[in-house]
Design goal:
By secondary structure, this protein is of the alpha/beta class. 41% of the residues lie in helices and 14% in strands. Helix 4 packs parallel to helix 12 and helix 5 crosses helix 11. The longest helix has 24 residues. The chain is globular.
Length: 376
C-alpha cells in the first residue's frame, strides 16, 4: 500500500457513519490540573450546575446503594407518575432516556428513513443532525437570525419529505429563546404529518412568561414533543437522565426501539428526589440570574458582544480566534467551550458559575484579550 493511502476498514461501515463527526468533549478539570500542574481549575464549559446535585438526590442515591444488584424498573413507573403529575401529561405519553440525547437518537431511529428530511437550525445542538444522518436522512439546516432560531424560515423549509423538525428553545449554543406568538405562528404553518420536537433542556432557567414552550400545544393534541433533562438545573449530568413528553403514538414507537433498561435505577431515584427539591431549583436560578447580570456588565466593559441568553450560559464574541482564547484561558485554569465546531470562530460559550468562578473567568479573560491585542 502506498504511503498516505487510507487504511481499509475490516468490515465496511454504513456510509452514513462516515459522514459523522465524533463528539469532542471538553477536558475534565482533573485532567487539566494534572497536565498543567495547576492547583485550581474552573470548568465553565458544559453548562453544569455549579451548586452540584440536589441534597435530596444525593441522599436518595446513598439510600439505594445496597440495592444495586437489582435491575432498574424498565417502565420507570414511579418517575413517570411524578412527571405526569408535574406536567399534566398522561404517563403513557412520557418516555425516559439516558439523557435527552438518547431520546433524540431514538426519534431518529423510529421516524427517519433514507431520504427523509429533518429541519433544524444551522447553529444548534449537534445531536439532531447526527440522529438524522445516521438513519440516512437529510438535515435541512436553516440559518439563525441574530442568534435566534428563524421560525418563519424554518416553516418555509418544510416540504412533503419533511418528517421531523427540531427546535432548541432556549437554543444551544446561543442561549436565545423563541416566544409564544412566533411559536404559535410557526405551528400553524406546519403540516400535520410533521412531528415538531422542542428540546427544552434549559426551560427551568427561563423565568419568562412569554416563553414559547410546546407543552400547552401537546396538551391541546398537536403533533409535537417536548424534551427535558435532569442534567442542567437539577445537577444530575453524571447520571444521564432525561425524558420526553409526546403524543401517545410517538411514545409507543419509541418504546419499540429503546433498550429495556435504558435508564438506570440510581438515575430514576435521584431524578424523583431532585424533582421535588424546589429550594435547590430556586437557588440554582438565583445564582444564574445574578451571575448573568455580572457577566453582561463585565463583557460590556471589555467591549465584547454577549448574546442575550435564557439558559445558564452566555455566548460571547471575543473578536479573536476562539481556539486561541480557549487555549490561553485553559492555561490559566479556566475551561470554556470554543464554538468553532458550530462555525462560530470568534465566540465562546461560557457557563455561568458561582461568583468566585465568574470572577476568575473575568480576570483571566481580561488578561488573555490584552495579551492577544498586544501581539497584533
Amino acid at each position: 500500500m502506498s504511503e498516505g493511502s487510507p487504511v481499509p476498514y475490516p468490515t465496511s461501515p454504513r456510509p452514513e457513519v462516515l459522514t459523522l463527526s465524533p463528539y469532542i468533549p471538553g477536558k475534565p478539570a482533573d485532567e487539566v490540573k494534572r497536565e498543567l500542574g495547576l492547583d485550581r481549575v474552573v470548568k465553565l464549559a458544559s453548562n453544569e450546575n455549579p451548586l452540584g446535585p440536589s441534597p435530596r438526590a444525593m441522599q436518595a442515591i446513598q439510600e439505594m446503594a445496597a440495592s444495586l444488584h437489582i435491575y432498574p424498573d424498565a417502565a420507570g413507573l414511579h418517575l413517570k407518575t411524578r412527571l405526569s403529575q408535574v406536567h399534566g401529561i398522561p404517563a403513557s405519553q412520557i418516555v425516559l432516556g439516558n439523557g435527552s440525547d438518547e431520546i433524540i437518537m431514538l426519534l431518529g431511529q423510529a421516524f427517519v428513513m433514507p431520504g427523509d428530511e429533518v429541519v433544524m437550525g444551522d447553529k444548534t445542538f449537534p445531536v439532531y443532525k447526527t440522529s438524522t444522518l445516521l438513519m440516512g436522512g437529510k438535515p435541512v439546516e436553516v440559518p439563525l437570525k441574530d442568534g435566534f432560531l428563524d421560525l418563519e424560515a424554518m416553516a418555509s423549509a418544510v416540504t412533503a419529505h419533511t418528517k421531523l423538525v427540531f427546535l432548541c428553545n432556549p437554543n444551544n449554543p446561543t442561549g436565545t429563546m423563541n416566544r409564544k406568538a412566533e411559536v404559535e405562528r410557526f405551528l400553524r404553518a406546519i403540516p400535520p404529518h410533521v412531528l415538531v420536537i422542542s428540546d427544552e433542556a434549559y426551560a427551568e432557567y427561563v423565568g419568562d412568561e412569554d416563553y414559547g414552550t410546546l407543552l400547552p400545544h401537546l396538551k391541546d393534541g398537536k403533533n409535537v414533543a417536548v424534551l427535558r433533562t435532569f442534567s442542567k438545573i437539577y445537577g444530575l449530568a453524571g447520571l444521564r437522565t432525561g425524558y420526553g413528553l409526546m403524543p401517545e403514538y410517538a411514545a409507543a414507537l419509541i418504546n419499540r426501539v429503546r433498550l429495556s433498561f435504558n435508564q438506570n435505577a440510581l438515575a430514576q431515584r435521584a431524578a424523583l428526589a431532585a424533582l421535588d427539591d424546589r429550594e435547590h431549583v430556586r437557588e440554582s436560578v438565583r445564582v444564574v440570574e445574578e451571575g448573568k447580570d455580572y457577566l453582561y456588565r463585565e463583557f460590556a466593559a471589555m467591549g465584547l458582544k454577549a448574546y442575550p441568553t435564557w439558559g445558564n450560559f452566555i455566548m460571547v464574541d471575543t473578536g479573536k480566534d476562539c481556539q486561541k482564547v480557549f487555549q490561553a484561558l485553559l492555561e490559566r485554569g479556566v475551561i470554556v467551550r470554543p464554538t468553532s465546531a458550530w462555525g462560530l470562530h470568534t465566540c465562546l460559550r461560557i457557563t455561568i458559575g458561582t461568583q468566585e468562578e465568574n470572577d476568575l473567568l473575568v480576570e483571566a479573560l481580561r488578561q488573555v484579550l490584552q495579551e492577544l491585542q498586544e501581539e497584533v
